[in-house]
Each structure stands twice: as C-alpha cells, then as structure tokens.
C-alpha cells in the first residue's frame, strides 16, 4: 500500500499540514521537525507528488547549475565541475529539490539557455559555478533579480551578491611560499585563463609571497593560444625559473607534458604546485603537489545559501568559507 501524507503525519505525531510544510521546506517549521519528518518519509518510502506540490507553492522545486562556457578541452574535461555538481545534487535532494544543468560552448549560447530556463520558470534560482570578469550571465541574473549564489568571489558588486569561496589569494601565496621554503627563487605563475577571478586572486597571492621574500616577480605566463605554447622554453630560459605555480591540476598535467617535450624533467629541472587536488593529481607520475580546496563543501554551502534566498530567509555574502590544505606529493624538489 502506498503511504499518504496522513500516514506520515500519524507516525511522526504531527499534523498533515506540518508534513506538507516540511515537503515544501517552509521556514515556519523547525530544523528538528524537518529532520524528523524527512527521516520517517524515507523509512516509509513516501515520495511527494511533485506536480501537486509545485502547483501549491507556485515553484519549480528545481535549481539550475550554470557551468562556465565549455570552450576548451581543459574546461570540458575538468573534474571539478562534476564534483561540484554531485555535491549540489546531494544537498538539494536532501531538501526534496531537483537540479538542472545549464551549459554551452560559449557565453552567448549559455546566456540564451539561462534566460530560457528563467523565463519559462523551469527553476527557482541558480548556482553560478564560476566567477569571470564582465560575465553576461551574472549581470543578467543580478539585473533581473533572480535568486542566485556564486561559487567564487564576484568581480564586482561584492556587497550585493551572495557567494561562497576559498581565500584564493591566500592559496596563491601559500603555494608560492612552499616553493620558496624549498629553496626556489625564480618562480613563474602559469595559467590558461586570464579573465576568471581566481586567476587574478591566485596571481596576486603569488606576487605577495615573492615580494615579502624579497624575490623577483614575473608577469603571469598565460597560455591562451596555440602559439603561446611555442614560447615556453624561451620563457624558462630567459627567467631561469626552477618552479611553476599553475592555475589548476588538469592544466598542470598539460604543462608537465610540455616541459617534458622540451627536455625539462619534473621535478628535477622544474618543480610544480597546482590547485584543486582533483583525480588527475594521482593518475600519472609524478603525482602532483596540489592544494585541496574542498569542492564538496563549496557545493554544499552554495546550495544552502541559494535555498535561503528562495525561501526568503536572512542570508549574507560569505568570503573565505572553505578551508584548504597543501597535499605534498612528487612534483616539488628541494634545492640545496
């Protein structure tokens, strides 16, 4: 026999209206009661009628997750976004909320996708999984007053946009300091993006660490076009660099392949520190020394913050929300 709202209410010793409010995540119901009722719903294999629930609340009971424009192989294959999606989906499911993904090959198509989802009321709000300078998607969400949470620090309107983040400047600083502690004096910062906020923050952290140590800083080495890769050995030769701070794990593997192609061994000739501690960090030798940013916690907190907005609960922007840690592996050599 299929259980009903009344069956759940009787077993939980609450009224059927309370069960309905729990299903709709109403703010008038305490966290303890919600946990109690949801546990009983799970035990009884009770599933709310989604159509009836949506009509009653005038909501889609779905949140959208906006991935960055998938305009490169690194972005298309980056496991960070899969980890983030999994954390968001698991957190949303705990509130009986579904998730939908917005993705496209470029910003124009992505904006059209997001606009359609919003105008057709397919979702109640969005989680924007990236932060980029002059991003048309974040501008649209802000101007249209659409509930959204940003994963990363906003490029502007920091006081008005709700966001969750690591301290990316501190990440860049600590990665560079680790190399300095190992005896490296000529260190380069290498990236395949130059408009994302994490690029600016991590590069600023790199500069800060070197300046505080009285060591030379270098312009960021940005690999945006195929011809940029051909200048790699010349840059290494001109700077005398012995170590690289690289924007993320997947691009770090690309740079290690490039270094090997030009006769530089990692870590014997070039040491490498990257970010994210993704599955790629331990797929091939040498294993990457990298900084773990706790993607799961970013996704969980981002989802909770979005649901607070949708439910009109008090909320505020957050910075430096998730701690990080350096994972020492095989890509850094200590110099004498």
UniProtKB/TrEMBL annotation:
UniProt cross-references to Gene3D superfamilies, sorted A to Z: 3.40.50.2300, lambda repressor-like DNA-binding domains
Start and end residues of each HTH lacI-type domain: 3-57
GO molecular function, one term: DNA-binding transcription factor activity
HTH cro/C1-type domain ranges (all copies): 4-47
PROSITE patterns in alphabetical order: HTH_CROC1 (PS50943), HTH_LACI_1 (PS00356), HTH_LACI_2 (PS50932)
Disulfide bond found in the keyword field: no
Entry keywords, A to Z: DNA-binding, Transcription, Transcription regulation
Pfam families for the chain: LacI, Peripla_BP_3
Protein's UniProt name: LacI family transcriptional regulator
Organism name: Enterococcus hermanniensis
């Amino acid at each position: 026999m299929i259980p009903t709202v009344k069956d759940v209410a009787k077993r939980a010793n609450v009224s059927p209206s309370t069960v309905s409010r729990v299903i709709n995540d109403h703010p008038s119901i305490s966290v303890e009661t919600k946990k109690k009722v949801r546990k009983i719903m799970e035990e009884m294999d009770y599933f709310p009628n989604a159509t009836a629930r949506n009509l009653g609340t005038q909501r889609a009971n779905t949140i959208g997750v906006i991935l960055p424009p998938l305009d490169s192989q690194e972005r298309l294959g980056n496991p960070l976004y899969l980890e983030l999606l999994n954390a968001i989906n698991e957190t949303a499911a705990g509130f009986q909320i579904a998730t939908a993904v917005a993705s496209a090959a470029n910003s124009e198509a992505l904006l059209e996708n997001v606009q359609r989802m919003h105008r057709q009321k397919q979702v109640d709000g969005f989680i924007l999984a990236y932060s980029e300078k002059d991003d048309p998607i974040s501008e649209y969400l802000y101007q249209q007053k659409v509930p959204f949470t940003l994963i990363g620090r906003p490029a502007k309107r920091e006081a008005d946009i709700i966001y969750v983040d690591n301290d990316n400047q501190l990440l860049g600083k600590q990665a560079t300091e680790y190399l300095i502690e190992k005896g490296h004096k000529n260190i380069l910062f290498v990236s395949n993006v130059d408009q994302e906020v994490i690029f600016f923050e991590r590069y600023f952290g790199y500069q800060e660490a070197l300046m505080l140590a009285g060591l030379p800083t270098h312009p960021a080495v940005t690999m945006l076009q195929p011809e940029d890769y051909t200048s790699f050995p010349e840059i290494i030769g001109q700077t005398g660099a012995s170590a690289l701070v690289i924007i993320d794990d997947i691009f770090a593997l690309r740079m290690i392949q490039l270094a090997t192609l030009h006769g530089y061994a990692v870590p014997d000739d070039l040491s490498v520190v990257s970010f994210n501690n993704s599955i790629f960090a331990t797929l091939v030798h040498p294993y990457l020394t990298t900084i773990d940013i706790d993607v799961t916690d970013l996704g969980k907190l981002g989802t909770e913050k979005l649901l607070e907005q949708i439910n009109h609960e008090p909320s505020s922007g957050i910075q430096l929300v998730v701690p990080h840690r350096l994972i020492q592996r095989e890509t850094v050599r200590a110099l004498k």
